[in-house]
Specification:
Elements: H1 3-13, E1 17-19, E2 32-45, E3 48-62, H2 67-79, E4 85-91, E5 96-104
Parallel strand pairs: 1-2
Antiparallel strand pairs: 2-3, 3-5, 4-5
Length: about 100
């Protein structure tokens, strides 16, 4: 999956997004998404890398728990046949929920 393919996923979800973070003072009101590639995974043998994959994190930020938005994100991922792991945390300092989708693309 290319970076352009990932951007198409973000567009399909339909809320503001940025790679890694929004610039200082430019963060929109929630909900919004930050996505990033925290790690690359190589497939290889005999001292040769044959193919690389990116781990992709999609971080969905909301003021309140939003099951409908989560369902929309999950529908887009399923439509693209992407296997994901989901977790959630309350960020006290920001007073926001982060729902994290982790996958390899």
């Amino acid at each position: 999956m290319t970076h352009d393919d990932v951007l198409a996923l973000m567009e399909a979800i339909g809320i503001p997004y940025a790679y890694d973070h929004f610039a200082e003072g430019e963060s929109p009101d929630p909900p919004f998404i930050c996505f990033l590639y925290p790690e690359e995974v190589e497939f290889g043998a005999d001292d040769t890398v044959y193919h690389t994959f990116n781990n992709l994190d999609i971080e969905v930020y909301t003021d309140l728990k939003d099951p409908e938005l989560e369902a929309r994100v999950e529908t887009v991922l399923k439509e693209h046949e992407i296997f994901y792991h989901k977790s959630e945390v309350w960020i006290e300092d920001e007073k926001m929920y982060e729902v994290l989708y982790e996958m390899t693309v």
